[in-house]
């Protein structure tokens, strides 16, 4: 216990604030996304789905910034772990942080604002699956990237509590991914079924239209033939009369 007491300052109120902030952002994201999908209330509130999506996303980003701010303050205030206090470890931590940030930027480049933040839940769906880096290498790279950044930051600061919080952050992101992945798949499967039904309906409508057109043409031909026959008959009668 003395070991942990030397490495973790439990009296630091910022520690508990950071723990709350780390959970608040994904919780807000999850609750607001599901609320919008089932009610469309946020879209109705702002008038259109794009404005609603952007505003909700800004709130999420603000919560992320508050989380990161509290986390970095915590890294500076909490006791350092001697095991991590050397230049090599610090360089490794900085390298991980940079790699994580590159992944973050790459996911934003590949997915765009609405792809990362709420688009699926606001009915702003992508037409095809994203396969560029880092999605061609990692599963759920948008979550993995933040985990790497959190871990790298704690290593570069030589913080034991930072390592524990990075594990806590992995748990939070894994939970969100576990909840989101099947739900997102359901959204796209639902759209695929709707498009399939729409395509079948259009095909049936075109088929009926073609059939009606054929019937109309057939009737026209019969009428023309009948008129022609009548014309010949009338001509023959006139000739006989003549």
Automatic annotation (TrEMBL):
S-adenosyl-L-methionine binds at residues 98-100, 180-181. GO terms for biological process: methylation; phosphatidylcholine biosynthetic process. It is a multi-pass membrane protein. Keywords: Endoplasmic reticulum, Lipid biosynthesis, Lipid metabolism, Membrane, Methyltransferase, Mitochondrion, Phospholipid biosynthesis, Phospholipid metabolism, S-adenosyl-L-methionine, Transferase, Transmembrane, Transmembrane helix. The chain crosses the membrane at residues 13-31, 91-111, 143-168. One of its GO terms (cellular component) is mitochondrial membrane. Pathway: Phospholipid metabolism; phosphatidylcholine biosynthesis; Lipid metabolism. Residues 67-93, 179-242 are cytoplasmic. Residues 202-213 have a biased composition (Low complexity). It is found in: Endoplasmic reticulum membrane; Mitochondrion membrane. Residues 214-224 have a biased composition (Basic residues). It is an enzyme of class 2 (transferase). Catalyzes the three sequential steps of the methylation pathway for the biosynthesis of phosphatidylcholine, a critical and essential component for membrane structure. This is Phosphatidylethanolamine N-methyltransferase. It comes from Owenia fusiformis.
């Amino acid at each position: 216990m003395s070991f942990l007491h030397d490495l973790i300052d439990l009296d630091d109120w910022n520690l508990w604030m950071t723990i709350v902030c780390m959970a608040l952002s994904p919780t807000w994201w999850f609750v607001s996304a599901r609320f919008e999908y089932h009610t469309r209330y946020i879209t109705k509130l702002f008038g259109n789905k794009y404005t609603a999506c952007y505003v909700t996303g800004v709130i999420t980003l603000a919560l992320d910034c508050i989380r990161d701010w509290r986390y970095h303050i915590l890294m500076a205030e909490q006791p350092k772990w001697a095991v991590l206090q050397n230049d090599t470890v610090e360089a490794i931590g900085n390298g991980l942080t940079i790699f994580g940030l590159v992944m973050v930027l790459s996911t934003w480049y590949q997915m765009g604002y609405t792809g990362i933040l709420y688009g699926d839940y606001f009915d702003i769906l992508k037409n095809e699956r994203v396969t560029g880096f880092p999605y061609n290498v990692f599963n759920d790279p948008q979550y993995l990237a933040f985990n790497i950044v959190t871990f790298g930051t704690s290593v570069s600061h030589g913080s034991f509590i930072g390592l524990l919080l990075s594990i806590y952050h992995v748990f939070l992101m894994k939970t969100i991914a576990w909840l989101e992945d099947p739900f997102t798949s359901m959204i796209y499967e639902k759209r695929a079924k709707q498009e399939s039904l729409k395509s079948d309906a259009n095909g049936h409508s075109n088929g009926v239209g073609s059939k009606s057109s054929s019937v109309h043409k057939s009737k026209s031909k019969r009428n023309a033939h009948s008129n022609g026959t009548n014309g010949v008959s009338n001509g023959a009668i006139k000739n006989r009369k003549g």
